[in-house]
Amino acid sequence: xxxxxxxxxxxxxxxxxxxxxxxxxxxxxxxxxxxxxxxxxxxxxxxxxxxxxxxxxxxxxxxxxxxxxxxxxxxxxxxxxxxxxxxxxxxxxxxxxxxxxxxxxxxxxxxxxxxxxxxxxxxxxxxxxxxxxxxxxxxxxxxxxxxxxxxxxxxxxxxxxxxxxxxxxxxxxxxxxxxxxxxxxxxxxxxxxxxxxxxxxxxxxxxxxxxxxxxxxxxxxxxxxxxxxxxxxxxxxxxxxxxxxxxxxxxxxxxxxxxxxxxxxxxxxxxxxxxxxxxxxxxxxxxxxxxxxxxxxxxxxxxxxxxxxxxxxxxxxxxxxxxxxxxxxxxxxxxxxxxxxxxxxxxxxxxxxxxxxxxxxxxxxxxxxxxxxxxxxxxxxxxxxxxxxxxxxxxxxxxxxxxxxxxxxxxxxxxxxxxxxxxxxx
Length: 426
Hints:
Blueprint: E1 3-9, H1 10-27, E2 50-52, E3 58-60, E4 62-66, H2 69-77, E5 88-90, H3 99-104, H4 106-124, E6 128-136, H5 140-156, E7 161-168, H6 177-192, E8 195-197, E9 199-200, H7 201-210, H8 217-231, H9 233-236, H10 245-252, E10 260-267, E11 296-304, E12 332-337, E13 347-354, H11 357-373, H12 378-382, H13 388-413, H14 420-425
Parallel strand pairs: 1-4, 1-6, 4-5, 6-7, 7-8, 7-9, 8-10, 11-12
Antiparallel strand pairs: 2-3, 10-13, 11-13
């Protein structure tokens, strides 16, 4: 049985991580005291995200970090979830929305304080698969401390899966430092992270608008957590086809650096539905610009419920004319769990490795280049200890990743590519 650590960083990451734990409690029928209230609910894999103590309480295996104490104080005041106070760390300095503070000065000191908790999780877990990390790319605490944690886990044990769930601020940039912060943490995610599931506030706003929900961060966190509940259902419950972090990385990543996924999920309430509907904009939690269905390099379909009588049926596959696949490679797979969600009988989730992510990168790359060319705000990072070479390396890494997505873009657009190898063989 795999075990996973939940890590929330900064105000955004803590909010998402806490809401995710609340949804986990609800899905596993745990009360406010972290006790199981429905013994009939399948508890075979409940320890994926929990440690059971001597009083039969299931305490979340988590860690929360922030350079401001405000978010951590809210954790202690809320009564919906019991969080071990020894797993919450904060300082009273703040990051000033500066990546360098979270990466090198205050954030590095905070990392030293919490390493013993991470070491304890490593020692106590019998089969630790990896971590799920939540943070905002634009914040100084989120981006800086996340880079530290990514490096720490890679040095601690390279065999563990590092799964980042960053929330991008695309189109809702509050200040120019967010562009720098995002590119810096992207530099770390490109090089050393195994899986990145991309979320952004623009897509979350659209989902709330089309479903007539209030538009605030609490609702955004809830929508995002519901998607994560669907993604991790096959980790936590048995089914026809089981899933896991390693299986996800093995099947959806054709090349090591192309590991950025676009999530969607759809609640099925009607009889007449089509699996291709999951590609509609209203179900996507990340809004890649000009993202065509044919731009997916690989994808995973997550089935949950009893309406899927034959989970391996071809009717539950997206047709080839609606989605692009790498020639001669089977780049899709499905996971299934028959344990239904308490509120919904049937849910379909989707993770796509999309070529459209390069359009996302270009948005930040262009703004970063314009600012760095004029050395705008560079001094705010240099006075804390960053070198100008780090700006250059991050920019080059983004440009390289954009070029790596390029060949797949052309193969999507030019049909003769598919016949190239046949002509050569002939």
